[in-house]
Design brief:
Blueprint lengths: L2 H9 L74 E2 L13 E2 L4 E2 L11 E2 L1
Parallel strand pairs: 1-3, 2-4
Protein name: Pentapeptide repeat protein
Organism: Chlorogloeopsis fritschii PCC 6912
């Protein structure tokens, strides 16, 4: 599946995209509120400014993804892979990041404390 097909299917009401492969997809500014991307491969995807509040990204591979200025408020990112991801100015209000992994190359907004959000460093 590519980004255009995902957006088309989302627009007609589909929300469940469990385990979809969207590696390197360009979804800049996409409105994907409440989408289910459980265990999806979004490695290297560009999700800058995407609207993903309430989304399920648990178990998703977001390694090296660009989430700059994305809105992930209320999203589930339990056990997600955020190694090397860019999360500058990303809205994470009430997002569940329990068990999500990160590494030294993961870029968070200034002052963000991954330990206080129950994330684990790899």
């Amino acid at each position: 599946m590519d980004a255009n097909e995902l957006i088309r299917r989302y627009a007609v009401g589909e929300r469940d995209f469990t385990a979809v492969n969207l590696a390197n997809a360009k979804l800049i500014g996409a409105n994907l509120v409440g989408i289910n991307l459980y265990a999806a491969d979004l490695s290297g995807a560009n999700l800058a400014k995407a609207k993903l509040w309430g989304a399920n990204l648990s178990g998703a591979n977001l390694a090296k993804a660009n989430l700059t200025r994305a809105n992930l408020s209320g999203a589930k990112l339990v056990d997600a892979n955020l190694r090397g991801a860019r999360l500058h100015y990303t809205k994470l209000f009430e997002a569940n990041l329990t068990g999500a992994c990160y590494d030294d190359s993961t870029k968070f907004s200034w002052g963000f404390d991954p330990v206080s959000r129950n994330m684990r460093k790899i």
